[in-house]
Amino acid sequence: MRIEVRFQGDVAILSLDGRFLAGGDGPYLRQKVKDLIDAGVRYLVINFEGVPYIDSTGLGFLAGSRITTQNAGAKLVLTRVNEHVKNILDNVRLTQFFDLAPDETAAVRWLKGHKSSVAAADSPSATPSK
Length: 130
Fold this sequence. Notes:
This protein has 130 residues and is of the alpha/beta class. It has four helices and five strands. It has helices at 25-38, 56-71, 83-91, 104-113, and strands spanning 2-8, 11-17, 43-50, 75-79, 99-101.
């Protein structure tokens, strides 16, 4: 899996490309997230558009990335999650722990509009993901 990091203002956008499988992918993503948070980033978007498949180990590391951001007081939004990945998140009951947005624009707009405490009802999860 490849991870491209770019910024839109103070929001880091991590675009994933490839199958998210056991092995090096999960630790690599979690380390990227940790490095960004250590550098002071508090708003992250993970774009799954290029991820056709994720396995349970990948989900575990994704959950770990969420905990890392939460513990740092940062916010994380997943975007462009395809049906396969969303079904896996649903099946292991992890969807409820992530904010989902249909695209990067919506994710960044939500983060910029909610830089203080965020009410659950205002979560981008209320917007159906594609």
